[in-house]
Amino acid sequence: MGNLLGFCYKSETVLQKEEDTKPVFSWDKREDLDPADYCFEDLEGVTRGKLPGQINGQQFSIENCKDCILFVLDNVASLTVDDCTNCVIFIGPSKGSVFIRDCTDVKLAVCCQQFRTRDCKRIDTYLHSNTQPIIESSVGMKFACLQINYPLLADQVKSSGVSLFNNEWSNIYDFTPVEHNSNFSLLPETAKFDTYLTEEHISSISSSNKVAFSSHNSLFPLTVGTHSRDGFGNTALLSVFLGQVDDYVEVHKLLKTVQNCECRLRRSKETRMNTDTVIRIYGESERSQNFNKFAKDGPVIGFEVEGDIDTLRSTLPELQGVLVYLSTDKTSSKDINNFFNYVDMTMST
Amino acid sequence: MGLLSLLRKFQKEADREVRILLLGLDNAGKTTILKALADEDITHIMPTQGFNIKSVATTGFKLNVWDIGGQKKIRPYWKNYFENTDVLIYVIDSTDKKRFDETGVELLELLEEEKLSKVPVLIYANKQDLLKSVKPSEIATALQLSSAIRDRQWQIQACSALTKEGIKDGMEWVYSSLGAQKKK
Ligand SMILES: Nc1nc2c(ncn2[C@@H]2O[C@H](COP(=O)(O)OP(=O)(O)OP(=O)(O)O)[C@@H](O)[C@H]2O)c(=O)[nH]1
Ligand SMILES: [Mg+2]
């Protein structure tokens, strides 16, 4: 910044002149892309898709479509869906927000940094949202945890910056609540996105990109969110310190074990931690000194698990290059509180 | 003026606290801009349910930046934050053509507010990094800014809170408008 004391009022003409000599921003040099390739507009009764590599992290929009099946198997910068009726829509990871406006009877599967709706009716959303989803002036909104995988999804998630382990899908905030009724609810745990689709739909979009909407091989972990209730067994904090490992292969191995021993995840978070925090949450033992080293190099993931924790403890797999922590009966409730309170506090803006 | 008094004057300038109000529709990018100004991580920002405030120290000013949530339901609360505002920063999502009218109406209403009269306005035409963004000059025309904004300093600045480009240019205009205010 320049010399503050020297500033004087600039007349409009001076400002005008400055506009001509303004610095060159990256968008002044943007490659020439045709916006028409980055939207679905005014379609009726058709199935359309974009394949991996066709969108490459650009902004995408869907407008004024009716009775359509629309797929984007690529990551996007942001997504808006406006004035659509009776459509089934899937969009790959969105670096920014997904904003749904003036839509009715839409089935949606999305993963994003932010999820927002306004003036919508009856939208079923299979959602993975890194932050708390919000709805405004919307009714009959239903939510489920997104379960999906296809060959290039992991790479796309990575380049979008969406975290696999921060999912607030069930923690809806309604700006316009009504008395005696809720504008939103959770879909039954048995709900599946592919019931809106046939094999032909998927293969007509791409035979080589096997898209599976099942929890069996889902890249996004299944969390029960506010579906969880007492009676499913004990709860524990399961943490993974990734250190220098920069993929999630080991974490997915661990999650397979969780599934196999009648346990499930209530919620999951990914965060960074400093030494003080590691000690506060995981104690000051010899082990936590190791945790500390790992926390300096990479993220810490925490799962609240419920179910048969003893079996889980005895079958924890050997993992390569990462550290695993599973709380004991004695420490579980304290650990869970410490971990999730810390995350909520540091991530709430 | 002796050296000491000059230093004292400078000290006083350095301490000047400035109240900046960040307004605009929901999803415009206000909180992202706030965090970019404070040099904080911008990858994990949630829609604002109330407001955020940050103090940013720069050479010469202590900026108290108030970022108020822009959902339609909570826009009526904006007025609770008008008092003593030195500069209004109004943020527009330059890609959201569907809501140019809506954002124009909200801006006009702000300009009518007694408590904001004569307050300089910086308009950030945000999200210029995105494919479907509209240029600031076109936004100014669409919203008829030059006829709508009278009796105050204003500027529209292209920016991207994501790449951080243009943010500094806007803030430099803010500092210069403060300098001009001081002269009055
Ligand atoms: N590509 C791109 N995305 C941006 C930019 N600025 C903000 N965003 C994204 O736009 C979305 C909304 O940003 P916020 O900062 O939450 O918007 P806000 O104005 O604070 O919204 P409310 O809190 O609801 O009033 C987020 O997903 C941001 O990542 C930008 O310059 N470029
Ligand atoms: Mg905000």
**Any idea what the radius of gyration of chain A is?**
23 Å
Biggest pleated-sheet summary of chain B: 6 strands, mixed
Strand order of the largest sheet of chain B: 2-3-1-4-5-6
The number of distinct β-strands of chain A equals 16
Largest sheet of chain A: 12 strands, parallel
**Category from helices, strands and their pairing of chain A:** alpha/beta
Distinct helical segment count of chain A: 8
Question: What's the helical proportion of residues of chain B?
Answer: 25-40%
Please mark out the parts of chain B with pLDDT under 50 across 5 or more consecutive residues, or reply none. none
What does this structure look like?
The complex is a heterodimer of chains A (349) and B (184). The model of chain A is unreliable at 1-18 (pLDDT under 50). Chain A has 349 residues and is of the alpha/beta class. Helix content of chain A is 23%, strand content 29%. In chain A, strands 1, 2, 3, 4, 5, 6, 7, 8, 9, 10, 11 and 12 form a 12-stranded parallel β-sheet that branches. Chain A has a 4-stranded antiparallel β-sheet with strand order 14-15-13-16, with helices on both faces. Chain A is built from 8 helices and 16 strands. Chain B has 6 helices and 6 strands; from the N terminus they run αβαβββαβααβα. Chain B is of the alpha/beta class and 184 residues long. Helix content of chain B is 33%, strand content 23%. The two termini of chain B are 21 Å apart. The mean pLDDT of chain B is 92. Classes of the chains: A alpha/beta (349), B alpha/beta (184). At the A-B interface, β6 and β7 of A face α6 of B. Bound molecules: guanosine-5'-triphosphate and magnesium ion. Guanosine-5'-triphosphate sits between chains B (24, 26-32, 45, 47-48, 69-71, 91, 126-127, 129-130, 160-162) and A (77, 96-97, 113-114). The site of magnesium ion (MG) has 5 residues of chain B, from α2.
